[in-house]
Amino acid sequence: MISAGSTPSRRRRGCRASILADRETGQPSPAGCPLSASLPGRASYHAAKHGVVGLTGSAALEYAPRGIRINAVCPGIINTPMVSDMIEKGELDLAESEASQPIARLGTAEEIAQAVLWLCSPGASFVVGVALPVDGGYVAQ
Q: 28 by DSSP, 3-state: which?
C-alpha cells in the first residue's frame, strides 16, 4: 500500500502504519493489483495479486468507520520494463496484447499514476473498497 503521508518511521511499522498515516493526512492508500487473465507459470504472481483485492475489501470495511478510505488500482498491460522483458523473451506477444485491448494499445505508467492521484483526491471521497481497473476496457469485455 502507498501512503501519501508516510514517513520513514511509519514505513518501518508496515501496513497498519500506512493506514494510520492516512488517517492523519486524510488520504487513501491505493494498492496495485492487476485483474488479469491467468498465464502459465505465474500462479504465485496471480495468487498474490488477487489476494490484494481481498485484502483491499476487508481492510476497507474495517477502517471505513474510522474515516479511512482504502482502494486498489488494477492495471492492465502497462508498457513497463517487466512487460518489455516478457515481449523480448517471447512470453508476451505485443501485437496480440494490443489487439486484446478495446483501446488497441498498452497503457502507460502515467495513466496509472493519474488514477492513483484521482483516488487520492477529494473527488473520490465516496470511493471505498474498490479494485479500480485501469486497463483500457479489458475486464469490461
A: coil
